[in-house]
Amino acid sequence: MPETKTRWDIFCTVVDNFGDIGVTWRLARQLVTEHSLAVRLWVDDLRAFERLCPQIDIHASQQWQQGVEVRQWMADWQPTEAADVVIAAFACQLPGAYMEAMAEREKPPLWMNLDYLSAEDWVVSCHGLPSVKYKQVQKFFFFPGFNQGTGGLLRERGLLERRQQFQQDPEAQRLFLQGLGVDRAPGAQLISLFAYENTGLASWLDAMAGDATPTHLLVPEGRILGDVERWLGVEGLAAGAVHVRDALTVQVLPFVRQDQYDLLLWSCNFNAVRGEDSFVRAQWAGRPMLWHIYQQDEDIHLDKLEAFLALYVKGLSGPAGEAISGLWRAWNAGEKMTDHWRSTRKHWPELEKHAQAWCLEQALQADLATALVQFYLNWI
């Protein structure tokens, strides 16, 4: 590490409620706590940020949260000195005045576009390459990823050790769930559901309700609640609601902070997640999962889905790989889930072992924060 504190600016525009701010908030904290950097996080929507960090003052233009300087990114941009490293998260456009401030520095800053996570083949060949220039300031592509030659995934120091300890401690799990108002029925499989709206949900709930094994489905407040309400035939579902239909218990949870969400994922036997941040956290949970990818124009998100599946099913038997792939494809197409869920259940032990192996394999790579710092050290 450099002897003096390097100053980093991270810019985030909140596009999808919690995904973008979830990634940048996690990254900013890790750069501060593990790499002793001075980090400013510029956010254009503090109301969305408040759900992840309840201590936030949504009216403050400048504040400190967990060692990170949080700045409100407002339309009337005030003159600000550019940092040593500037990260434009997910290709957001920096304020023109700030770009001028970058160009005015005696030594131009390292300017990086932290892109969305993808398993597509082209990511490796583009990672770290120069992008556009603004005057004498060069921007670089920086891609998170699953393969060697990418920036890796966000993973805090000691995360997997903490997860393993928690998963081996039934009492710790019971107390955590109890704190959320969850009383897990003996023998019930625990499943978390965090997803976008999905027409395939009703058939999946039908399948779980008719399963021989009881299921306790935990649904944090979010966009999928409307579909849950329609299936239950109720209105106004809110945190604390519990409904039972045959073998399925559905319980609505409050929206939880990131550290609590990790514990939720670690407590469950299976996790349905969405977007990018929760998708990565589900992988670190080491449990079978279902990903609802963010929908994009012309269905280009389906190419990303297939690229990830091609990597993820390696090491699985043919039938198990087909089962989990079929489940993911049906879910992302909003199709009926019944047969795919039953097929997945047949291969449960193999899928559990595979999820653990995948987690350990991904942990062999440098984490994203460390990779960013190393890129900067190489650059200087």
From TrEMBL:
One function term, GO molecular function aspect: protein-arginine rhamnosyltransferase activity
Catalysed conversion reaction: dTDP-beta-L-rhamnose + L-arginyl-[protein] = N(omega)-(alpha-L-rhamnosyl)-L-arginyl-[protein] + dTDP + H(+)
Keywords attached to this entry: Glycosyltransferase, Transferase
Keyword Transferase carried by entry: yes
Recorded family membership: Belongs to the glycosyltransferase 104 family.
Entry function: Protein-arginine rhamnosyltransferase that catalyzes the transfer of a single rhamnose to elongation factor P (EF-P) on 'Lys-32', a modification required for EF-P-dependent rescue of polyproline stalled ribosomes.
Protein name: Protein-arginine rhamnosyltransferase
Native source organism of the sequence: Pseudomonas moorei
